[in-house]
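[Q] Does anyone have a clean structure-token version of this?
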Amino acid sequence: MRYVDSMGTIQTATNEQMRELDEKEGRVRVPSAVVDATIGMMGAALLVEKDGEILEKTLKRFGLWRDTRLAQTMLDKVVKQLQAKISTRQALSIRENCRGLNVQCSARPAEMCVNLPVSSCDVLVNHALHYCQHHCLKGTKEASKCYLRDVFASVPGMDYQDDGIGICPFMGVDRIENE
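[A] Here you go.
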């Protein structure tokens, strides 16, 4: 597995090296939903940090600044301890997915951000699925490197099943519209 270490250089770890490290440090594999939730917690910690700076005067006025800093510290602690306990591969995956993470929550569009309504996302996903259904004939090996497959896997409500016959699991999938 390729990853970027804390110094910013690209490193490679073999499955055997990761397995040995897991056994040595007592790390365990967790469900993928836990990995996703950990990435979400890292995003939440980032929001608390950014929004805390914006709200600092108001929070201090209402006596909430200490609680906000405590919440930020606790989120950081939980994420770090989770990463120390889960398998090396999953911890590296979390780190790679959160490198350069930028979370923005806003009721109005912000500069240099793309703000797409859910309906626009549905249109884009449906057009991409149309391509996959009618033009793509990739096998599992080629499909594992497909950028669309990564996008589909991250879209909420996208159900797919690997049928084991060697084709992309998104070939022939219909998107369920958000209501």
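[Q] Thanks! Anything notable?
[A] The chain has two domains: 2-98, 116-179.
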